[in-house]
Amino acid sequence: MGNRVICMKKKDVAIRTGGDGSRSKRVSRSQRKLLGDEEMLHRRALSMAIHQAQLSQRFDGSVSRRVGSTSSRRQTLSDPFSNNKQVVPDLVDSLAVKKVVLVHGEGFGAWCWYKTVASLEECGLSPVTVDLAGSGFSMADPNSVSTLEEYSKPLIELLQNLPEEEKVILVGHSTGGACVSYALELFPEKISKAVFVCATMVSDGQRPFDVFADQLGSAERFMKESQFLIHGNGKDKPATGFTFEKQHMKSLYFNQSPNKDIALSMISMRAVPLGPMMEKLSLSTERYGKGRRFYVQTLDDLALLPDVQEKLVRENSPEGVYKIKGSDHCPFFSKPQSLHKILLEIAQIP
Questions:
Q1: Active site (annotated) includes residue 104
Q2: Is residue 301 among the annotated active site residues?
Q3: What is the pTM of this model?
Q4: 175 and 199 in contact (C-beta within 8 Å)?
């Protein structure tokens, strides 16, 4: 079955369809090479995740890094999803903004973007990933991260350290969308475009958690009754984080994902700081409201249901809306070709 990507911008609707079509039983030499490259990339990411787990996720500071960087492969590896046609970096050399900052969602880390990083680099863009506080390689204890400001600190520091005239395309997945909104309010002049990938694109005064209320109940009820809460400061103290059981995660986040991606996530994901998820955002029309926002919907998502994503789009009016059929809530995306092509297209919008 082919993969279908739908882009709707303003009143125009464009449908682009690309698929594998019928395949010969015989795997060509080029196809075998592409499969080998993908396997090598996955093993590299898995090795990094195992190393992270062995060190108990304690590192010297929150790290902004490229995960599984593929810069050495750029001249030899063709795009696995472009009918074996070599991506020509010259096509994007004229873009004013080529740096793409990828912000992970709850429980994940910079490692979760390894497929997207590879694909974006092949396109000639410059992807950069961050570990939010208490996530990925960050040495912070998730139970100690109580505010959205603390949670977003690595992202904010990255934006603060950009050269004065440099802008980025900021991409957030899931609750990472709240960090994107927070950053857009603080630095609208540094963010060329903001892209929310099945993400919490909230309104002023709304909490990131509110977006998931249909599945998890109200914030008040969740705080009182949820079995997923973590009391890092003691049972008699307020909850500090939450985490889902593995089987629950598989059914919610990875219903369309291959087993290798699920295995990588299960050994790499960390508890989620609760405070940032329950904090109401203050977003102004003068700053956040002037940002150029785009939304990517995942149509087979069981964590952030398609109807909920559609509601977010209706209530927040992004400039463009893209839909990926066959994708769940996992940031690896079982069809990563769709995401990187969408991001490339957004980068090319004047």
A1: no
A2: yes
A3: 0.77
A4: yes
